[in-house]
Amino acid sequence: MTQDINFMTKTKALIDNLKSVCANYGLGNDGNEFKIITQVFLYKFLNDKFRYAVKREKPELDEAENFSKALLDLSDDEYQFLIASLDPNIPRLRPEHLISHLFVKQNDSDFAKTFDDTLRQISIENAEVFSVKSFSGAKDTLFDELTQFISDSSQRDAFAKALINKLFEFSFEEMFEQKYDFFATIFEYLIKDYNTDSGGKYAEYYTPHAVARIMAQIMVPNPVKGVKVYDPSAGSGTLLMSIAHQIGEENCTIYSEDISQKSSNMLRLNLVLNNLTHSIPNIIKTNTIAQPTYLDSKFDYIVSNPPFKLDFSDFHADLDKDAFKKRFFAGIPNIPKSKKESMAIYLLFIQHIMFSLSDTGKAAIVLPTGFITAQSGIEKKIRERLITNGWLRGVVSMPSNIFASTGTNVSVLFLDKEADSEHIVLLDASKLGETVKEGKNQRTVLTPTEEQLIIDTFNNKQAVEDLSVVVTKKEIEAKNYSFSAGQYFEVKIEYVDITADEFATKMKTFESNLANLFVESKELEMEIQNNLKGLRYE
Fold first, then answer.
1. How far is 397 from 488, CA to CA, in rounded Å?
2. What local confidence, expressed as pLDDT, does residue 180 receive?
3. What are residue 391's phi and psi, to 5 degrees?
4. What is the model's pLDDT at position 200?
5. What integer pLDDT is reported at residue 492 of this predicted model?
């Protein structure tokens, strides 16, 4: 534990130092700062991952005084054999690509060009594994020419030199023996300044880790292997990372779609940090609803926190075509007259998820709580279909303000094509949690004990007073397909026996109090009338 804390402290210091370099060269809070920080951090991580893997494959290199020179001294045949022996998910670097090599070369002329050329070569030679694809199949570049973001060309060499010096200060290698869970904290720290709702920065309402953990542990209570996991609105990947850790990174393959290039790049970094590099080719930058890449694929596990309000008027008409209708059985939401009104795009995502489940598929979806009780419309049609098909495993209604960035009350809908329709769990966690302040916002945070209570109650199918009910398919049909636990709780009236004398005393007290209130009311009326009479027009 102490080693992990020490490592995280050093890593956060590296991130802070990189941001300081950007600030010193006029790029603090610049629109390109995000690219520089995340890409330089990724370069550092890939560099150390390569060094670690090579030393394990060829231990004598670990003894070398100068690693990059020792690697450079290998014959072409030795080097090619070494590279071929590495795991396919390890980046392929040449000796001149290493940070240690650039550190030695930092005083050469045109060092900024050397730095940019190095990153470009790494991008090209590792495109197959590390590039994110768009719907058209085009691949992005792993790294940009970062020094070109410095408008004053005379400062570019110094900028590149400053970055390399920060990267050279410590190594990730010592931590690669550990499990990667702690990198979730590092990732969040890395992107925190670019994941807010102010200053024009990128704002992704990513799912709180507590909600992600609850979803993962309810979805995967028992070990599984060789499964396909999908998120159609992946963002930076909080939900995907949580369920992958629960399943085991080596036991699952990740698939994702998201319309944002920035989100896709965040997700790529998250996959690299969390030992899921093998899934990077499955990240697709696309409009999941209008241009789905995985329309013909079926998935074992689907997690999603879809957008609740997003303008889809530009492609609304296309959704009525036959190719789309098979997905949207319950209908397509209308475009509101005003864009300030609700844009119910999440209803399209629910139907897309239902369409994408395998024969034994399971899903967990974050939704506005209003969905679970809507009396008509698309919401009701979806709920009816889930009950008719026997796919509803249960619902957890979360506390208010579980998301710091939105006041919308949310619930998590759990689907399972093998669900037990006689024991559907409806859980109301709205009274749980502690209120904390985050900046200007208040947020409700679940304690670890409360998280575990929700998970255990749900997985054990327990009815707990004022928390959960276990109902049947027929009971839900009788309640107009309501998925709200509160509508199934028993109404309890507590009676207290009192004597006739006690009753008479209570009534006298009520009468006396009421008489006093009437007197006070009359006095107040008189005072108001007198004040009105005293008003004069000047």
1. 14
2. 45
3. -100, -10
4. 32
5. 54
Please list the rounded mean pLDDT of every run of 10 residues in the chain (538 residues).
70 91 90 89 94 93 87 92 93 95 95 97 93 89 93 96 94 72 69 53 58 95 96 92 94 95 88 90 94 95 91 83 80 77 85 97 95 93 97 95 74 97 95 79 86 96 94 95 90 65 81 82 82 70
pLDDT at 202: 33
Q: 151 in the Ramachandran plot: left (φ > 0), alpha (ψ -120 to 50) or beta?
A: alpha
pLDDT given for residue 438 in this prediction: 63
- How far apart, in whole angstroms, are the C-alpha atoms of residue 508 and residue 99? 88
**Number of alpha carbons in the 13 Å side-chain half-sphere of residue 180:** 23
User: Could you give the C-alpha distances from 80 to 41, 54, 127, in angstroms and in order?
Assistant: 27, 12, 18
Angstrom distances, CA of residue 317 to CA of 324, 335, 355? 11, 10, 20
DSSP 139: B
Q: For residue 56, list its beta bridge partners.
A: none
Residue identified by tokens 């995280």 is 8
**Residues 6 or more apart whose Cβ sits within 8 Å of residue 21:** 159, 162, 163, 166
- The residue written with tokens 């769990």 in the block is 425
Q: How does DSSP classify residue 316? A: T
**509: which 2 tokens?**
């007290």
- 3-state class of 471 per DSSP? strand
Please check whether residue 19 is in contact with residue 166, taking contact to mean a CB–CB distance below 8 angstroms. Answer: no
Selection from 466, 453, 487 nearest residue 383 by Cα: 487
Element holding 219 (H helix, E strand): helix 209-219
What per-residue confidence (pLDDT) applies to 199?
Answer: 33
CB atoms under 10 Å from CB of 475, counted, come to 15
- Taking CA atoms, 352 is separated from 85, 131, 289, 447, 453, in Å, by 41, 26, 8, 33, 31
Among all chains, which residue has been given the structure tokens 């925190």? 192
Give me the residue label for tokens 């839900």. Answer: 476
Tokens standing for residue 118? 């190095």
Distance CA 300, CA 361 (A): 4
How far is Cα 525 from Cα 316, in angstroms, rounded to an integer?
59
Alpha carbon distances (Å) from 95 to 92, 298, 507: 10, 42, 92
Q: Which token pair is 374? A: 């809507």
Cβ atoms of 5 and 13 closer than 8 Å: no
Q: Which residues pair with 213 in a beta bridge?
A: none
**Residues with Cβ within 8 Å of residue 472, at least 6 apart in sequence:** 421, 422, 423, 424
What is the DSSP track for 337-373? Answer: SSTTS---THHHHHHHHHHHEEEEEEEEEEEEGGGGT
Q: Is 158 helix (H, G, I), strand (E, B) or coil?
A: helix
CA distance 173 to 99: 13
